[in-house]
Amino acid sequence: MSVKITADPAEHGFDAGRLARVDRRFDRYVDEGKLPGYLAVVTRHGEVVHVGHGGLRDVEAALPVAPDTRWRIYSMTKPVTSVAAMMLFERGEFELTDPISRWLPEFAAPRVYVKGSSAAPGTVAATEPIRVWHLLTHTAGLTYGFHHAHAVDEIYRRNGYEWGFPAGLDLAGTVEAYASMPLVHQPGAEWNYSVATDVLGRLVEVVSGQRLDEFFAEHIFRPLGMADTGFWTDSDQLAALYSPEPGTGRLLRNEAMGAAASRPPAVLSGGGGLVSTALDYHRFTQMLLRRGELDGVRLLSPRTVDLMTVNHLPGNADLEAFGRPLFAETSYLGVGFGLGFSVTLDPVAAKSLAPAGEYAWGGAASTAFWVDPANEVTAMFFTQLLPSSTYPLRPQFRTLTYQALR
């Protein structure tokens, strides 16, 4: 099944002529050879008012993007894992302030980097345990090897954690490896985008007694009717992955990373492992917009969704003030972070048409989504260009959407 327009844009406050600018802008990216292809979806009041797509899901085979194309959503997996964790929170399985070492004893005595090189790091004991809410907010002190911004990032890379995982490990072994490496900062002291959601996925496994894929399927995907979402796919509708050639920007097929989505993974990555479709992720975003419920199926209480989608950074700080500077195609000004989502705090500071309260996230291959409760708008953008910092696709999609809303 594929995502389809279900209502006239004008009946839901959108100017269809101005909304067509979305397609024109991204068609131009395709024509200029900057994107292989794309799919953009906009909804309001639960109705799909725009579906635009263009280009190819597989350039070499000349296969076009279609509304039912499968996409590697990478870090758009993180909100799914965050929902899974909060479902367990609602059952009383843990408190958000609980130390994760209760279930993951490898984190009982974390060390924090303070000086030195990656080969000889100087560390001190953590003054605060890593707590569940630290994982949900990326304030645990963990990191990513692909940041190339800190000595600990290099330690991750040297141990085989840059854009993947070393051979021979499952999720449990991977999380144990993360626990053996130093933290970038004291838990709760800063925001640093990281493997925290992979650790959260392992926490879901231990607390629930189910593998992460089994928990997702039983408690999220089947209840929401997300039949085409999982940690891999053998569908011939899977889009190929591309990266720009250094120097020229020419699209090169990234088979080394792209092939991973076509086979069962050794590591079930709650931080970036899912493959999905626009229709499936649309159902997920509609559940969020409706504060935890869709078509009579309730995953979370409205109070829980409200808690997840407000800023949890201390002092209501934005990411510019509390976060570490990392590569991004968007500004951190005026944007905070909740339990699994970025949250717009101040549209003026963010220089964005998005209203306060909009929450969002994206994936490494330039995918993105947002939910705007104030205007009852959701939007999703899919392509397969890695890394996401190559072009300002996300802010442009946001502007192009909101300029069409009356």
UniProtKB/TrEMBL annotation:
Protein name per the record: CubicO group peptidase (Beta-lactamase class C family)
Xref: InterPro entries: Beta-lactam-related, Beta-lactam/transpept-like, Diverse_Enzym_Activities
Organism superkingdom: Bacteria
Coiled-coil residue spans: none
The Beta-lactamase-related domain, residue ranges: 22-392
SUPFAM superfamilies referenced in this protein's UniProt entry, alphabetically: beta-lactamase/transpeptidase-like
Pfam family, one: Beta-lactamase
Organism per entry: Kutzneria kofuensis
